[in-house]
Model the fold of this input.
Amino acid sequence: MAKVATVPTDERLATTGLARRLLTRPELGAAVGAAAVFTFFALYTEQFATSTGVANMLDPAATLGIMAVAVALLMIGGEFDLSAGVTTASSALIVGMLATELGLNVWAALGVAILFGACVGLLNGILVVRTGLPSFIVTLGTFLMLQGLNLGITKLVTGTVQVRGLKTADGYASAHAVFASTWKIGGGEYRVTILWWLLATAVATWVLLRTRAGNWIFAVGGNATAARTVGVPAARTKILLFVTVSVTASIVGAMLLLRLTSVQANAGIGEEFQYIIAAVIGGCLLTGGYGSAIGAAIGALIFGMAKQGIVFAGWDSDWFQLFLGLLLVLATLLNLYVRRRAEAKK
Amino acid sequence: MKVTRRLGVATVALATVALALTGCSGKNDAGGKTSDASGRKFAVITHGSAGDAFWDVVKKGAEQAGKDLGASVSYQGSGKADEQANLINSAIGDKVNGIVVSMANPDALAEPIKRAIAAGIPVITINSGQAKSAELGALAHVGQDESVAGEGAGRKLAGAGVKKVLCVVHEAGNIGLEQRCGGARTGLGGEVVNLQVSISNIAEAQNTIASKLQADKSIDGVLALNPAIGVAAVDAVTKAGSSAKVATFDLSADVIDAVSAGKILFAVDQQQYLQGYLPIVMLNLYATNANTVGGGKPVYTGPGFVTKENAATVKDLAGKGTR
Done:
């Protein structure tokens, strides 16, 4: 959380302006929710607020966060992508198989995986724009198709249900350094993924708030017909958003593979909802036209904190999902409550 | 403002529920963490998803060992390799006295396991990943050799006159299951066809098996690799009007009833209670007496066969969830 700089008393007007600007941001509620979850676990468990604890919670949050930011852009544009989760697995399988079976350099394999992701995004986007079918349905179809492809092709090529042995592939070392290396700070091992997460959030925020494309995204999500009549290229914007999500998923999939050096054919299933939930906690509306990338990143952080916090608290794992669900609903309610209060004050 | 107030009330209500729940699952609850008179704590981290009957028995075994030894045992499971890796990292952060890991995906867990060992935390692998256990520096492996068990099941099916077996794989990505089917192929000496279903949707799995049996009348044996699937396979055989004999890996009360009733030919028992119980005992012995068990070889918990003859003995225990 950025601290508001202390301002000399004779410039009180400036702070009021800043406070007002902060209060109207969609991510404010998420920030309050994140602070609440952090405080709760920091007080309740002894390991949570240590360097190790923070490293452990930032790790899953970062991977989820990169995806949540991309999904948030798409949701602000008024669409869903249920195929994002399995696309990460498809990409990891492609990189793994090309590198281990064909002996391709990891970087070249990554290029192929990104191309594949772009194709998936194009397919989703063009189908949604051309047919007018809800993206929920179109991407659900893509999700099921990819799930089958992942298992079928993996079995066909490797004879097993997982791809392994990436460590010996060409270019593994450099790709691992860029996408999966760790560094130690005070006992905790922090992953480079966290930096990618921050970068993705910064880029997405800049696009949303400072560029014409960002205005288009808000416009097509708010009211596509109205946006089209004033000259916004609605179809192109939506297709590009789908491509953004799928390409991001390809890169995230490769990150996971480089970290684990193996990937199962059934990976990534169910993750797509976590991306959407993280974006919603962060203030995105399911109906589009409203939301923020920073909010989605904070939403992912809440998710990561809850997951690790429950483990540290030693609560019975049988109830894990219940606690997770409760925490998420609480965080979202708090978010909504804070936002309503802020709007009432305006 | 009215909406805001209502929201506030809802939030408070939910928070109360959450707190009440944490209260009934507090730190000294028999479910989550066992009491720790000795001050030693062990973490069990498996690839079983919550609610899986097989892994629930492993969990019971581990927790009972904790109770018997006065050590604290926490059990966590996740079917996703990256989450499992995270849970191991959390256990390292928790500074536990030992970690028990099931390695369905050894490559993915290699890094955190090595990190645990480097941090001076002994690791014992269970259930899957036997081949990589010693290489990663684990203290021991407790489990069943999947190929050997599959071979035994294949031989037993061949003895019952079965020629063509449908091997039902319920967890894509688990090499151990593939090895069981491979072993069955060796033991049977006939044809084995693999069928992919999902453990999270038993009803659908049952339909898939029935359809397969209807499509291929020459299948005269079904080998399930999980007790819930085994029971589903019995119904699927009836539904398909097939006369295929059903055998299954692993036990549940329902499977034993079906074995007693002659609906299931036999069940391969890997006695997974031991996979929860023994590692805790071994880690405790290592902590208190620097003992190691197994001499660098896996400690086998199976395979044992439950047939019509011994089903009654096992039945009570299975009902209690320890077999």
About this structure: Chain A has a mean pLDDT of 89. The CA atoms of residues 175 and 276 of chain A lie 28 Å apart. The beta strands of chain A are 162-163, 182-185, 188-191, 263-264.
